[in-house]
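Deliverable D4.2, example record:
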Amino acid sequence: MLIEIIWNAETTQVDLLDGAVTVGGSPADHIHLDGLPHGLLQLTLMGSQLSVTSQRSFRIGAALFPARVPRLVVADEALKLPNDVVIRRVVDAKAREQRKAIDTAAVAEELLNGDASLENTRAATLTCVTGFDSGRVFALPYIENSIGRADDAVVRVRDRAVSRRQARLVKRGREFVLEAASPMNPAYINGIKLKNPRVLKTGDTLELGRTVLRFDAGERALSEHSVMMAHGPALSPNSAPVPAPLAAERAEPMHNETLELPPSPRSSFQDLALVMVGLSFTLLGMALAAILVD
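Output generated by the structure prediction step:
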């Protein structure tokens, strides 16, 4: 597995093999970087999973991570160390290209059947990076996705410090909004207590009890892009197609739009009413003329 070490404006790639290596400022460390404490990090590679344990707290993305707690490192995550040293797990471009274009509807169906291949899905996911479920990937295929230790939770974590339903992720358009569901057990986003609903971005970490989950917004599948072309109204060559997730939103006019309706044909009853009104005005005119003559 490739990692990048960015230090002193230089980038060096290191190919890790299965097992553990140390990163620090001592000549005894496998990866020696001057200025770092001795044995600062231990990187452990087991198959496709890379975990890190640090002797000091450090940052991964926007979140500060505590010392001496093993933490899974997801592809493209950057570990920020003292002296502006950055260690990043390199994205396997070939593996990404081979991911199947499975949309969220297909993921939901496969989850119900119990045979979803989550590593191939492009749906939004939560990856457990610490705790008993470390390494598990949870797909988020529904409009509302409950998170907790309940048996029927969409994201079920095996952590006794977590409530049966501690939080939920609600899909609104293209965004996922995290909402707290348990007043007793708070949730934390990037180390900050969740007080109000918050839109998640790729890389945000959700902390529940002793479990940390990393959010990935996923990628839109090809079938999702083609929904409007397959089932929507015909489009002129010069018009831009409306993305499928916005189809429901575009079913009604926006506040700043004017809705023009085609004129409806008059009924025979409307025509008769117009004739009667005209005849009434004619008779009234004749009556007035007779009075004036007299």
